[in-house]
Amino acid sequence: AAGAGFDACSMADMRIASDAARFSINHLRVGALSVDGGYYFLTRIVGVARAFELAMTYRSFDAQEALRLGYVCKVVPHSELAAATRELARQLAAGPPIAMQYAKRLLYQSLEVSLDQHLEDAARAWLINETSEDFKEGPRALLEKRPPQFKGL
User: Are 55 and 25 in contact (CB under 8 A)?
Assistant: First the structure.
């Protein structure tokens, strides 16, 4: 993933890499700039100093370094990448959609707001989420020792 491909990769909430993957935010190599959010996302993923280093040197780095930097969540053998990605997608799809929507929103908003504002936003999200059928299904499934069947209701 290089240039605009790197930027697209950076837009993902989570990234799994093949052990053969290589990455580079190399726009400057050709006198260009990342204009589709690459710098914005990268600084939030790896921090300002590391983002500067990667952008200004436009060096390539491998999957293990991406893991050390926190750029990817997991590195798997290349032959297992599709299966690992499908398993993550399956796990996410089985989750509680309403609560996950609010969790995602709260995670991203936490980068921009004060703790007090975040706690207020979380309390509002809790009030909405607790009216959902999924909110009741989770504890019920736990008590019945079965996987929950979330429906987004």
Answer: yes
Crossing angle, helix 38-46 and helix 48-57, to 10 degrees?
Answer: 130
pLDDT at 21: 98
Rounded to the nearest 10 degrees, what angle do helices 133-143 and 97-109 cross at?
110
**How much of the chain exceeds pLDDT 70, in percent?**
100
- Helix axis angle, 115-129 relative to 97-109, nearest 10°? 170
Residues contacting 59, CB < 8 A, separation 6+: 24
55-65 tens-digit pLDDT: 999 999 999 99
Taking residue 3's Cβ as centre, other Cβ atoms within 10 Å add up to 17
The C-alpha angle with vertex 15 and arms to 74 and 31, in degrees rounded to 5, equals 120
C-alpha–C-alpha distance, residues 110 and 115, integer Å: 8
Global pTM value: 0.86
Classify 18 as helix, strand or coil.
strand
- Write the DSSP symbol of residue 37: S
- Which DSSP string corresponds to 125-140? HHHHHTTSHHHHHHHH
